[in-house]
Amino acid sequence: MDVLFIEAVIAEIAPLIVGASVKRVHQPDADTIILRLWNGRRELRLRLSVAPGASGLYLTENPWINPPAPLRFCQLLRSRLSTLRSIRQVPGDRIALLFFEGLDGSPLRLVVELYGRCPNMILCDGQDRIIDVLHRRNGDEQHTPRRKGAIWTAPPPGPGRYALWDGGVIDDAGGLHENAAGWLMRHVHPMPALLAMELAGRMAAGEDPTEALEKFVRSWRCGERSFWTGEVDGVPRLGAFRPVCLKREQVQEFASASQAADSFYARDASNRCSGTQGQLLRIVRRALSRLQRRLDKLHQERVAAADAETWQRAGQLLTANLFRVRKGMTEIDVENFYDPGTTLRIVLDPALAPAANAERLFAKYKKLRRGIDHIERRITETLAEKPWLEALELALEEVGSGEELAVLEEEMQQARLLPRQPQKPKRRPVSGHPGLRRGLSPGGLDLYWGMNSRANDYLVRHVCRPGDRWFHVKDRPGCHLVLKNPRQDQPVPEADILYAASLAAGFSRACEEGAAEVMVAEGRAVHKPKGALPGQVHITGYHSVRVAPRRESGL
């Protein structure tokens, strides 16, 4: 987020959030703070991110997954902040200042440094004395060290002979002929890269440097804004003005700065997979890769072991011809009883007696035979583990709360995908069953579906009755869905079955396909085998329906 976009977004959100009370503070990952603000009319969520290369602030509508226990800086903000009194930008810099009234009535300032390779957040008291920082580090060439108890000071203005907002004649533009964008970024302050490229394009089209600069300043001061996301020269960009000369690909325009930023950074957060959710996803995906490599190797070993019968036949043929074998021989041709009219050449160990050579062949056969049994058992175990990992991956992608994330983390610990923590942080008691959703069919029948393996197991064991209907997308990871039948001995209306099947497809890996095949079974046909992995069941009978996937939020 560049200096122009920061100015635009602060001007946009200030009337909405100034005077709002801090209802809650969340920290979904190491670099992000979400302030839930109540302005007397509605709740707003202000996202502050200091992720390197993806820093910014804006009002968000996207869901952000919070850890079960708040992190250090989040706990500090919860214990101090009460009301947001004002918000402003350090002139010409990528720094936002949020002024709060503390719970004890004292003034507080939250400094959000959005620039450089090490962005940070600093909480200061009324005298700008640092109470604590989000990232405790030594700083870099752009950031001075931020230590508790020190006085926070704004960095000096950036280098440059010309100030963007002061106007004036650019009388030293010799470098513009070679690299106009680079020259502007070195000599004009502030000068975001996107604006430098735009002005360079105007100058290349013959526009005077001073005139191009003044024209942009006039349009900006008149409030001309255009919020968009897209690619410029193959690089994703977030803009607050409409470029004239820049070629933009895949542009999407938005009505407000926050909407543009919300779309831009939600996509970036998804790609970076930050926080606990992203860490767990990476672990599961690595486990899936290892499992696939193991499966490929087992298939190769099975092919190599498939000629075990050849060694047995060679041993039997050699036994029938022992009278012809002498110690010291290296090979012998024998008549092949298994393929009449042909001979088989058997390689011998010259150091062994004839009978020992035959025993060697039988021993090779027995070893391969045992290997085949072991390989088949490993393949069966691996094939049983793969659907569980795929379902776990889907559940992590769809997770909707910190409680659901904690359930999945515990499941991974039980499966030894994660080491068990010797001392777990204290957590609030989990109410209900995290990951369990509820809805209604068109006919008013209750629907329940699980967003993780534990919720799915709960459905099968405690919710699904013999006359209910159970749904799951065929041969793909997805939720278990139960359609309750109040009259257990009566058939369920077809419209309700098709609706439930479409929901089961929507909450599965087939959610983006045009149509998906869904298994429909009576509750009496669904069983949880003893010792089965979480979320796995045995079905004794079902029929299939083909439906278009749909998604509902549930209750």
TrEMBL record:
Coiled coil feature spans: 281-308
Any one GO MF annotation of this record: tRNA binding
Q: What highest taxon heads this organism's lineage?
A: Bacteria
One matching Pfam family: NFACT_N
Q: Does the keyword Coiled coil apply?
A: yes
Cellular component per GO?
RQC complex
Keywords tagged on the record = Coiled coil
In Swiss-Prot or TrEMBL terms, this protein is called: NFACT RNA-binding domain-containing protein
Q: Where is this region: Disordered?
A: 417-438
> What are the NFACT RNA-binding domain coordinates in residue numbering?
447-538
The organism's taxonomy opens as: Bacteria, Pseudomonadati, Thermodesulfobacteriota, Desulfuromonadia, Desulfuromonadales
**What Gene3D superfamilies is this protein classified in?**
ibrinogen binding protein from staphylococcus aureus domain
Q: Which organism is it from?
A: Syntrophotalea acetylenica (Pelobacter acetylenicus)
Q: Does the keyword Iron apply?
A: no
GO BP term, example: rescue of stalled ribosome
